[in-house]
Amino acid sequence: MRVNISFDLAPFSRWLSDYNRDKLTRDVIAGLTVAAVLVPQSMAYALLAGMPPIYGLYASFLPTIVASMFGSSRFLATGPVAMTALLSASVLYGMAEPGSDKWINLMGVLALMVGFIRLTVGLFKLGFVVELISTSVITGFISAGALVIALSQAGHILGFKITQSTLIYNVIVDILSKVGKTNLYTVGVGVLAYAIIWFSRKVHPLIPGALLAVIITSVLSYFYDLERFGVAIVGSVPQGIPTPSLPNADYSTIASLWGGAMVVAAFGLIEAVAIAKRLAVQSGDKWDANQELIGQGIANIVSGLFKGFPVGGSFSRSALNFQLSAKTPLASMITGATVGITLFLLAPAFYYLPKATLSAIVLSAVISLIRPQEIIKLYKINRVDGLVAGVTFISVFFMELWVALTLGTLIALGSFVYKTMYPRLVVLTRNPQSQTFVNAERENLPECPQILYIRPNMPIYFANAEYVYEYVLNKVIERRTKGKPLKFLLLDMEAVNYIDATGVSTLMRLFDELKKHKVEPALANIACDVYPLLERINFDKHVDIELIFDSKGQSIVELFNKLDHEYCSKKCPYAVFRECYSVKPAEFKPVVVL
Predict the structure, then answer these.
(1) 494 and 569 housed in the same domain
(2) Both ends of the chain: CA-CA distance in Å?
(3) Which residues pair with 491 in a beta bridge?
(4) Which residues of 79-102 are buried (b: 16+ CB within 10 A; e: fewer)?
(5) Quick check: helix, strand or coil at residue 206?
(6) Is residue 419 part of a domain?
């Protein structure tokens, strides 16, 4: 088999060829505006990942630039994302102390692994695999994840340290046990920061409320020396960027991280692809999902090399790019470059920034995502989807986030597989009024005593092949037990667009068993993708080649000619097919089944 690998080494060259001053103006405005949002957000999301705030800027500098260079969307803003940050932290809990050198090193390893997975998916055009995580799982996970994020910030808002965990139950118990340690000055700073962000949005959505909150609370912290009142501040922030290096990890560490890395990579892929696709459709842009994944993969690899943590596509910042009419990916490059300038020139200015402000920024971004009503809505539409979303949501109370996401995905896939294990097989007959083939059992219409006409309504494969075998054989035995002169089983393959080796072998075994019961198997409407598989197993040794038909109409005409017409004329009380009247007495009146 030939694997198709494509990688555009310079996708940015496509938009550089016709670049002009008007596009540059738009890109500069969008780039600087998004940077004003990204700088405080990235530091806040670093706390979610258990990293010192400055590492959020590391993950927002070069990764943002390379993602835009090697991606395909002019709007997708790559960098620290709340859910990805928290999901990454949940993978490492128990392996090191958040914020420690070991934790920072492991985050770098995780970012490299996530980058490698996303890059591989993009290179081999495997982006379709993200569709295995259903919407119901994402709905439950996002609501639960947002709740976890909100609770994780309670310690910074209230002024005391809480347990580092994504288990909602543990966090709530810990908060309640320490609520007496609340620092009112810290609460005041957090409330002020949140109010600034909220009010800014009400005035105009383009006002950088988070940046204003950072500036105002930092100034207050400096002039009133809030640290002496117990308000935690960011403290010393190094200038520049770290020297690129491979994080240290032994084989056992890498092996233990693979499961979590796969989940973080998959969730990030869903975010990035969904955001880029939605904005491309709205703007009429062409985009390449696999090229986008390549950009995301390289961005995470760069993040891992520069002591960052896993990054992804941000919906809020991408939407801002779209709202500001960014013309090319240069807008995101300008955003990343602005973060770089901040690192080299303005990093010390964050010394007096209260951590409560960063928590307020996080809360303002995720509080609206806590929507359990969406789970109820899903349940009303489809009970299975609602239950999957509900189980995913509830499991976060007792499991790490990445485990809960994996569990939800397995349950969703399992429910689908379970349904396909018992496919709907329809016994067909002709409706005398409409002259069309319908479900005989549902419509309560008579069937031909000599032809059992069955249509499987989905692919036949290893999980359901035996069920199909048993169902058809039982129908045949039931007919025989009732004394009906059954001569043919007609299997309509119209809806069987796929069949695997187990399915083919089981069908042939079924046909051989039918012959022992003096019933000849016949096939109609075999799909062009299925026919070659039947040929490879020499199905003509199990089915008379004259009983292979192209259509329903042809199959009935040909099979009717082979029936016992004397039985049709003298004993059969029905006229199921039009052809029946050709052998019935002139005075015949069909019996109607009610």
Answers:
(1) yes
(2) 56
(3) 454, 523
(4) bbbbbbbbbbbbbbbeebebbeee
(5) coil
(6) no
- The encoded tokens of residue 525 equal 């409407």
Q: Which residues of the chain have pLDDT under 50?
A: 1-4, 593-594
Residue 415: inside a domain: no
Give the integer Cα–Cα distance in Å for 127 and 289: 7
**334 shares its domain with 444:** no
Q: Edge-to-edge strands of the sheet including 520-524? A: 437-439, 425-430, 451-456, 488-492, 520-524, 548-549
For residues 365 and 431, membership in a common domain is answered with no
Whole-number Cα distances in Å, 436 to 280, 431, 440 = 44, 6, 11
Which positions ≥6 away from 68 have C-beta within 8 Å? 12, 76, 78, 295, 329, 330, 331, 332, 333, 336
With DSSP H G I counted as helix, E B as strand and the rest as coil, what are the percentages for the chain, rounded to 5? 65, 5, 30
Helix (H), strand (E), coil (C) string for 263-298: HHHHHHHHHHHHHHHHHHHHHCCCCCHHHHHHHHHH
pLDDT digits over 394-444, tens only? Answer: 988 888 778 888 888 899 889 888 888 888 899 999 887 878 889 998 888
Note down the domain range covering 542: 425-582
Q: Provide the 8-state DSSP code for 549.
A: E
Tell me, what amino acid is at 399? M
Structure-block tokens of residue 434? 């409409």
Rounded Cα distance, 333 and 458, in Å: 49
Long-range contact set of residues 269-273: C-beta below 8 Å, sequence gap at least 24: 269/118, 269/121, 269/127, 269/130, 269/293, 269/296, 270/130, 270/133, 270/138, 271/81, 271/83, 271/84, 271/312, 271/313, 271/315, 272/76, 272/78, 272/296, 272/312, 272/313, 273/127, 273/130
* Co-location of 102 and 245 in the same domain: yes
Q: Does the pTM exceed 0.90?
A: no
Residue count of the chain? 594
Return the pLDDT at 510: 96
- Cβ–Cβ < 8 Å for 307, 62: no
Q: Considering only CA atoms, which of 335, 310, 301, 556 is closest in space to residue 435?
A: 556
CB 315 within 8 A of CB 368: no
Q: What is the Cα Rg of the chain in Å?
A: 32
Distances 415 to 31, 113, 418, 514 between C-alpha atoms, Å:
45, 30, 5, 32
Q: How far is CA 324 from the centre of its chain?
A: 28
Q: Looking at the domain assignment, is residue 512 inside a domain?
A: yes
Q: What is the pLDDT of residue 12?
A: 64
Domains of the chain: total: 2
CA dist 167 and 42 (Å) reads: 23
DSSP, collapsed to helix, strand or coil, labels residue 506 as helix
d(CA 18, CA 338): 24
Within 13 Å of residue 103, how many CA atoms lie on the same side as its CB? 21
- Does 195 lie in the same domain as 115? yes
Residue 428, both tokens: 């067909």
Residue 229 is given by DSSP the state: G
Choose the final residue of a domain: 369, 393, 417: 369
pLDDT at residue 335, as a whole number: 95
Tell me if 493 sits within 8 A of 543, measured CB to CB.
no
